Amino acid sequence: MKPFELLEGQPAGGDRYIGLTLKGYLDAHTVTEFESHMDRSIEQGGRRYLLDVSELSYISSAGIGALMGLTQRLRREQGELVLLRPNEKVFKILEKLGFTKIFRLAWTREEGERMLGV
Amino acid sequence: MKPFELLEGQPAGGDRYIGLTLKGYLDAHTVTEFESHMDRSIEQGGRRYLLDVSELSYISSAGIGALMGLTQRLRREQGELVLLRPNEKVFKILEKLGFTKIFRLAWTREEGERMLGV
Amino acid sequence: MECTERQIAALDLVCSPRTEVLNLIRNVVTTVSREAGFGPDDTSQIEISVDEACTNVIRHAYTGYPKGADDPGQVALRVQICPMADRMAITVIDQGRRTSCEAFRGIASLEEYIAQPQAHHGLGSYIISRFMDKVEYHSSPETGTVLVMVKYRRSTEETAP
Amino acid sequence: MECTERQIAALDLVCSPRTEVLNLIRNVVTTVSREAGFGPDDTSQIEISVDEACTNVIRHAYTGYPKGADDPGQVALRVQICPMADRMAITVIDQGRRTSCEAFRGIASLEEYIAQPQAHHGLGSYIISRFMDKVEYHSSPETGTVLVMVKYRRSTEETAP
Ligand SMILES: Nc1ncnc2c1ncn2[C@@H]1O[C@H](COP(=O)(O)OP(=O)(O)O)[C@@H](O)[C@H]1O
Ligand SMILES: Nc1ncnc2c1ncn2[C@@H]1O[C@H](COP(=O)(O)OP(=O)(O)O)[C@@H](O)[C@H]1O
Q1: What confidence tens digit (pLDDT) does each residue in B34-79 have?
Q2: Where does chain C have alpha helices with state H?
Q3: Do residues D25 and B27 lie in contact, with contact meaning Cβ atoms separated by under 8 Å?
Q4: Pairwise CA distance, residues C113 & C109, whole Å
Q5: pLDDT at C5 over 80
């Protein structure tokens, strides 16, 4: 298994939103790759993201901080970031810290699309 | 998961043979429990054993030595010990050391029963 | 190692202060925590706390530490893990740039974190204080910076909100 | 630790010489081996070799060591793990009863093992010498008994019969 993988556009949301899949762990080591990918994508006009995190095995404050920065940045531009299906371990960490009230979480793709307003 | 579990008689071989299931790891720590169980069983007349090792996750020389002692002891008394379905990891260790030529290994219960001559 | 209590094992990891080592440290800590009888929730909280402490050492104590240099004997991030009868103690040690106790404290609440305008800071220390039962931080030129974190084993896995 | 080569991490486990610790040691070694890029077969061979070396220390070097005593600072089984660029070195150290290099060698072949009439001995050392690429054993009152085992990383997982 690769420690970290970011796959774009599978399955794609057409031009309504960008579908991404995040696999492995998002820590201080891998977060820079994630952030620069997202920076490029937003610069190219991306505003609505459905981020499949079901295969994300671990997240630390570095990763949470990146998601936080993204969320605030996108909301400022009338965009949105939705996290799809965090696993139990990641969910519990986010929940205990209070981030489940800040991030938008969806459990199905349809629910996620509704949250993105598409 | 318990580190080590030895279950007898499920499924039983009637009085034709004794079916055992070994789970967890068989190392210098757990081998004494295994050996004393087998000692008691043989003293009570057991001679033919089908040992399901499919859920045995690890074996060291302590465990191999116990199986070796059992095998030789049972063969002296016209009995036999058959190991059922070792997992890939355990099999490779036994194979590289040459023990797959010494122990009797079966991949199905029927094959194991044939090897026991029942 | 600083494990004076009765215990059957103590681990000492000496690492280069590079983010590459975080996954190894997490895996080792997780292994020991499970083996010591901690459940999945507690193990996960220990894992992230240790990660945060180590990330701080790499990012703050050793800022500017050259990426290519690889001699943990000289510039080291040290993690000591002591599983004990009723708890696990983890000590993270560095010989890098020292900071004040106050700076280390990070944010006091999540609200404070969200209110930050741009880059978000202080979450690491907050996580450690939320998830570990006891946190001690001291720093001196002789000892370097030493962060001791303790988590007690609960009989059942329950976690306050 | 005896890791002088360039590397990014080194581990030192100090354990009570009790068979209870074997599972923890195996789990830690396995974790480091995987993380260092060894495949499942090599990892499994490293795992069993380290187990054998530690079992020997518990059984032979510290025979009669009281089960209740739990002070690894005094009577310790030490395992040092050094993952390096092209190999992994594991050193097992004890301060117990010393033995000769010859006694340590164990059996020379499996035939010798089978030929033993009753209790079977010498398989542990045989396993170590079969599975590790380099094995060095030395013992002195100053250093205690030190067993250094090295396994090289192969590009592909192939294993000679
Ligand atoms: N080991 C350390 N050495 C030096 N400074 C540290 C160390 N750990 C933490 N700090 C300081 O504590 C602050 C809070 O850390 P933390 O809560 O992890 O947030 P962040 O890393 O996002 O700034 C850091 O900004 C840094 O100034
Ligand atoms: N660390 C050690 N301290 C003292 N003696 C040892 C040590 N390791 C091995 N030995 C000796 O080496 C012999 C061979 O060990 P081994 O191959 O593991 O077989 P076994 O443990 O089954 O006897 C042992 O019987 C013991 O006499």
Answers
A1: 999 999 999 999 999 999 999 999 999 999 999 999 999 999 999 9
A2: 22-35, 40-56, 101-104, 110-115, 123-131
A3: no
A4: 7
A5: no
Give the CATH class of A4-116: alpha beta
Containing domain of residue D123, as a range?
A: 11-159
CATH of residue D114's domain is 3.30.565.10
Q: Which amino acid makes up residue A3?
A: P
Which value, to the nearest 10 degrees, does the dihedral of the CA atoms of residues C32, C38, C43, C47 take?
-40
Which pLDDT band, with edges at 50, 70 and 90, does A42 fall under?
A: very high
Which of chain C's residues have a Cβ under 8 Å away from the Cβ of A69?
Answer: 118-120
**How many angstroms separate the alpha carbon of residue D104 from the centre of ligand 2?**
5
pTM of the full predicted structure? 0.90
CA distance B50 to chain D (A): 22
Structure ipTM: 0.89
CA of residue C122 to ligand 1 center, whole Å: 7
Atom 4, ligand 2: residue with shortest CA distance: D61
**In chain B, domain spans:** 4-116
pLDDT, tens digit (0-9, with 9 covering 90-100), for A45-64: 999 999 999 999 999 999 99
> How many residue pairs bridge chain A and chain C with CB atoms within 8 Å of each other?
66
